[in-house]
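EI: anyone free to look at a 203-residue chain?
SC: sure, send it
EI:
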Amino acid sequence: MKLILAEPFKTLWAGLDSFAEVEKLHGQVFRELAARRTLRTEVEGRPYFVKIHRGIGWGEIFKNLITAKLPVLGAGLEWAAIHRLQDLGVPTMTGVAFGEKGSNPADQHSFIITEELAPTISLEDLTVNWVAEPPSPALRHALTAELARMVGDMHRGGVNHRDCYLCHFLLDTSQPIDAINCASSRATSASRYARSWPSNRRR
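SC: here you go
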């Protein structure tokens, strides 16, 4: 079993079964499947995102392998990817809790809790009307350069984002969105499905 807790969960769940406590968290549910649940919750007045994995079963594992995909067995991959991105200097989420138990890969119970990234807007939402209402060339070039830098740093560092779409790149909206601010404040990768490659596969 693996268990890593930062505050406030370290104190709140002291002496308790963290795997039972995470199941008690309530809030806005973004995805509810038999083997996975994703929700936004607030704890002690602060917002967090919670993802719970309950095991995908051997059928799903074999289906992924037959189609040449490595199955996502639990939250461990995401936890490792977040820390790899942080090591590379790529702005990403902050993980505050992680748990994993069970030796059977088809029936593993795991969870990850991250701080909410706010206030932000995804690059998908930011650019949705750009055909009808194009931005200034300076803003477009600044965003393109920053996005290319982030993805380049990820790939050179051996991280392959399984869902590398604009919706997974978030821009800080705490200050006006213009070319100057885009150059000085980085976008953030919400890389929930990133996979970290072993070093011998980086080239």
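EI: DSSP finds seven helices and eleven strands in the chain.
SC: 👍
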